[in-house]
Amino acid sequence: MRPARVLFVLVPKLHLLDLAGPAQVFSTANDLGYGYEVSYVAESDEVMTAQGVPLRTQVAWPELEPGDLVLVPGWRSPRLSPEPPIGPAIRQRLRDHHASGGTVASVCSGADALGWAGLLDGRRFTTHHDLTDELADRYPRATIVRDVLYVEDDRVITSAGIASGIDLALHLVAIDHGALAAARVAREMVVYARRNGDELQESAMLRHRGHLNDLAHRVQDVIDTQYADRLPLAELAGRIGVSERTLTRIFTTATGLTPLRYQQLLRLERAEHLIGHGATIESAARTVGFEDARMLRRLRSRTPVQT
């Protein structure tokens, strides 16, 4: 299979970070082997950014498939123009891609471009806090969601602005390749692996990756990939090259959990997924590494799960 394409649609006076943040996420993910191809189009072959850096790009659109993503970064907009930020041809391209099963997304004022394309109507969306009232008035058939990082509704994904494009992109990597992939990309970029859009945080892999301690991340990498195996503390400490006491202290300080408790949470999450798809408690317990179902039943009885 060819890599999934991420196509950025560049608008004059775009904010560099609106573009560079998510572009770096997908580029880093590709470097780590997750298969993304990043490309850029605009209505002219040169676009001036709000920060004064000119960008060279392409006018011709590549062939897109349903698995591809089209993303519109935001632009400098204290007030939105009464005129559409993109022409009719690009608006039609956005509509066609979504209609064919593709995903479209925006950062900050990029939501206005999706609105002009008719893709916000009947859907929930978000944008930068300075623009929420204006866009709510402009698109009364859509529902604005305030004070969140991003909103996903029927393959139309909007984010709040500027750095939230990174959170949006990490979320999409997690959807495509799993929470561990998003955590690896975030660690490589030295950013927090946040996934807090308008939904509750669901993944322990990401929920406990919001730190910058390299040793703890290395231990998590081991546990994330081998959570179903028996991982004695002495073995983990030996892999990292520290004492068991040091490992426990550093890991607990960084994540709020002991290594064993973190592994149990990963096992519990996977077991709940299996049970939700028809597995028995006994088979789910064996699959995730418990010798029998008693420990799984005890963990499931904690409501909510204590972390």
Automatic annotation (TrEMBL):
User: What is an example of a Pfam family matching this protein?
Assistant: HTH_18
Q: Does the keyword Transferase apply?
A: no
Q: Matching CDD domains, A to Z?
A: GATase1_AraC_1
- In this protein, which residues make up the domain named HTH araC/xylS-type? 217-307
Q: Name one GO molecular function term.
A: DNA-binding transcription factor activity
Keywords in alphabetical order: Transcription, Transcription regulation
Q: What name does this protein carry?
A: Transcriptional regulator GlxA family with amidase domain
